[in-house]
Design a protein that fits this description.
Layout (H helix, E strand, L loop, with lengths): L6 E3 L5 E5 L7 H13 L9 E4 L3 H10 L7 E5 L7 E2 L12 E7 L8 H11 E10 L10 E2 L6 H8 L6 E2 L4
Parallel strand pairs: 3-4, 3-6, 4-5, 6-7
Antiparallel strand pairs: 1-2, 8-9
Length: 172
């Protein structure tokens, strides 16, 4: 999108010029799209893709890109009505080696076992496939911190940056 100025956005701390008022893309969505355009052949040669926890900004672009190959683009989420499939990413009910590309943004900090979720994503990815799997990182932390005994939403927000996060990733 082309706009003179993006809107501020942020759950706890607002970032200036973060959100596109037209397509709802954040910095990470714009960066992903630029990388896909510049570094892959995905837009000219669509591959079988699974988009987990689909963001509106990217989903619109992918649906347009895959308009002639709708069966190659699948969305999934635990609950979102925007998604085609509904499942827990820690127990994906899909066959091994099902997808060439997996997009999964800002999800692993929400799940009980990020290790199990990553194992499942790897299992359903075809040999030679690739994925974009992003999570927020606090680069001032040397190691990842998680503590499931913290259940108060305000305390989770203070420590993890959002009430429904289970961990905050560090540089490890």
């Amino acid at each position: 999108c082309r706009r003179r100025k993006f809107l501020p956005y942020g759950y706890v701390t607002s970032r200036e010029n973060a959100l596109c008022p037209r397509c709802l893309a954040l910095e990470r969505h714009r960066l992903i799209w630029l990388w896909i355009e510049r570094e892959t052949d995905l837009l000219s040669h669509p591959k079988k893709m699974l988009h987990i926890a689909p963001e509106v900004a990217l989903m619109r672009k992918f649906k347009h890109t895959y308009a002639a190959n709708r069966d190659l683009y699948t969305t999934a989420d635990l609950e979102s009505p925007l998604a085609t499939l509904h499942f827990d990413v820690q127990q994906i009910p899909l066959p091994d080696s099902s997808f060439d590309v997996i997009i999964c943004n800002h999800l692993l900090e929400h799940v009980e076992s990020d290790h199990q979720a990553l194992c499942e994503l790897y299992r359903i990815m075809r040999h030679g496939g690739w994925g974009i799997i992003l999570s927020p990182i606090d680069d001032s932390r040397e190691t990842t911190f998680e503590d499931d005994s913290i259940t108060d939403e305000a305390e989770r927000t203070r420590i993890f940056g959002q009430y429904d996060h289970r961990r905050i990733y560090g540089r490890d």
